[in-house]
Amino acid sequence: MIKIDTLFFTIVNRGKANAVLRKAKECGATGGTILLGEGTVQSKLLEFLGMTEIRKEILMIPASGDLDANLHDQLSETFKFSKRNKGIAFSVPFKRWTLEASDQEHNISIDDDRFTHCCILTIVDKGRSRDCITAARAAGARGGTLIHGHGAGVPADSYYPLAIEPQKDTVLVVTRKDKAASVRERIFSDLELDKPGNGIIFTLPVSTTSGLFETRTEERKGGTS
Hints:
By secondary structure, the chain is of the alpha+beta class. It folds into 2 domains: 1-112 and 207-225, Alpha-Beta Plaits (2-Layer Sandwich), CATH 3.30.70.120; 117-205, Alpha-Beta Plaits. The chain is 32% helix and 30% strand. The chain contains 7 helices and 9 strands; from the N terminus they run βαβαβαβαβαββαββα. The protein has helices at residues 17-26, 44-49, 65-79, 103-106, 129-138, 177-190, 213-224, and strands at 6-13, 33-40, 53-63, 88-93, 117-125, 145-150, 167-176, 200-206, 208-210.
């Protein structure tokens, strides 16, 4: 059984995830899960034409520490994540809790120096994802990825035990740790998430990234210095 240390994410253009998964299996992955999503691009022309959303696929792979490092190296090289709009990858640390573990062993802190980025996840009613992306960009984020889903619940004032499944949007934003607090607070404020039913937001630590705008910029600077 593979030891799971991280959940490896990669976001690529629609139709590419199966090829990425095949390569990941060559590296030792046992499988993965593919979700459909939409990415966003910053372009005044595309905004005017109403073409700011690009169809994406999100691939999630459970990985050991060694496999995670190998996936970043091999997939980034094979699929050219260092180039614009080819894809990104990031890893979220995975922790398995046991009754015998101490409180200290349970702790995974975003403030840990190992984590250079954060993944901010916001779940809102369908149609509010654009407002979420706008708020994130206003606070310094580059953009985000949208995943469609459903919620479930029973209205508090309902006279009948009817389960409802309102459509939901999950917005995934990966940003540098030093920007995470301002991005999260701007989304929380602009979308009024303190009001019941408006949505929820939470942050996960990110241990490794490939293909992010900041990473490409730093690599170019390093190559020209």
